[in-house]
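Side project, low priority. Logging it here so it doesn't get lost.
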Amino acid sequence: MTTPRPLRPTLTLSSTVIDAPDPAELADFYRRLLGWEPVQEEPDWVKLLPPGGGSGLGFQTSKPYVPPVWPASPGDQLMMLHLDFEVTDLEAGVAHAVAEGATPAEFQPQHDVRVLFDPVGHPFCLFVSDQVPGETPAISPEWVAEQARDFRTQDRLTAADAVEPDRREAAGTGEPDVAS
């Protein structure tokens, strides 16, 4: 006689949790990168969710956090996982990520993927799924700097402007009041 197997419980992925020395700071980078909003903020924990719902990203304090080395060699700190984000335009995606604080990796293994590091060193990838196979194009530091400069000069609405939209008019410049 066999013992009936218990029913498998329903499991739903709530979030992928990322360690950081300062979870609020790293969550803010991903908030700007993805346009996701925080749904939970505590001193050692922040959770972001995408606007349409679904699995989010959590950030927790890890004081002894050591950034992984990528690509790793024997004895290096290894990454436990990395995030992949599909983009419609790889160059624009890289420029946006760099403008928000990411750093492109020197080694780029594929033509349709860009490996970047978030501000605390977690690798993440941007990819375009409909590209034709070919050589991996180089990312010149000059191109990245130019793209990041272009993004930084765009008139972007900040969180403070969204909360206090009259600050621009109060300053009389039409520009955000950076003194506050």
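Brief comment: Helices lie at 23-34, 90-100, 141-153, 159-163, 167-171.
Revisit when time allows.
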